[in-house]
Design the sequence.
């Protein structure tokens, strides 16, 4: 019986990578809260997750060195946010409160995914070591 | 891992906000500097921010957008000219020139800069926690 690490971890690694990228995009929004003309951006997590799922079901390998490598980039475009306030005069669409909360929520969800992964790993450890005996 | 890039991004935000804080401090400190000619009078200074799209694109094509201070401009607002013939710095017509610093504006700027700085610090702190947790993955 072979243990497949990919299957054991499920989609959580993908979720982590998407959360990781989303954290960066949100931090850019926060850093540029006072930059004139800056447009806030975000990643649609649901859509990115769907892309990741689709990729996971059909994995592609290279059988010849002249084949093109399929990039393993986590999908999901960064889209511009619809501002929920009228233009404040400087063309900046960052709502700092919204971005802060989104960043914190994203960070919590990242840590939740980490907790899932840790539980999976300790489960597999138990299976390998026979319950630590 | 783009988590490490967050430190750069939040850091650029902190640097930009501290430049803003510096100019505000300098404006407030010089709010009452009197001079005897238009040219010598202190003018309010304000930094100009711009989003900095890092030229070095990563393999994944997601380029971080930090903040860059493009430069510092002096305000074009008219100076406060005051008729004070007895002032030792008055010019031959009896006028002294005061800077065009608007204290109210500067106070608002200061509060805004300090809040934004705080937010960037919190972002970097949260990113640090995320990295630390990730490094401890599987050890719990």
Sequence:
């Amino acid at each position: 019986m072979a243990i497949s690490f990919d299957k054991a971890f499920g989609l959580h690694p993908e979720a982590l990578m998407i959360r990781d990228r989303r954290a960066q995009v949100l931090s850019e929004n926060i850093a540029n809260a006072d930059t004139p003309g800056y447009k806030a951006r975000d990643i649609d997590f649901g859509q990115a997750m769907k892309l990741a799922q689709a990729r996971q079901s059909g994995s592609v390998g290279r059988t010849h060195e002249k084949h093109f490598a399929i990039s393993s980039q986590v999908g999901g475009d960064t889209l511009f946010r619809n501002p929920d306030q009228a233009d404040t005069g400087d063309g900046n669409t960052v709502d700092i409160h919204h971005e802060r909360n989104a960043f914190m929520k994203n960070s919590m969800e990242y840590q939740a995914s980490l907790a899932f992964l840790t539980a999976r790993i300790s489960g597999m450890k138990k299976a390998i070591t026979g319950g630590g005996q | 891992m783009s988590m490490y890039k967050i430190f750069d991004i939040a850091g650029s935000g902190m640097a930009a906000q501290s430049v803003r804080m510096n100019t505000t401090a300098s404006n407030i400190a010089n709010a009452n500097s009197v001079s005897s000619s238009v040219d010598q009078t202190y003018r309010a200074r304000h930094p100009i921010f711009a989003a900095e799209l890092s030229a070095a694109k990563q393999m994944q094509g997601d380029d971080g957008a930090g903040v860059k201070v493009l430069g510092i401009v002096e305000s074009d607002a008219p100076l406060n000219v005051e008729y004070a013939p007895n002032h030792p710095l008055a010019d031959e017509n009896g006028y002294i020139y005061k800077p065009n610093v608007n204290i109210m504006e500067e106070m608002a700027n200061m509060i805004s800069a300090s809040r934004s700085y705080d937010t960037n610090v919190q972002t970097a702190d949260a990113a640090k926690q995320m990295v630390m947790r990730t490094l401890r993955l599987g050890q719990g």
Chain A touches chain B through 33 residues (CB under 8 Å).
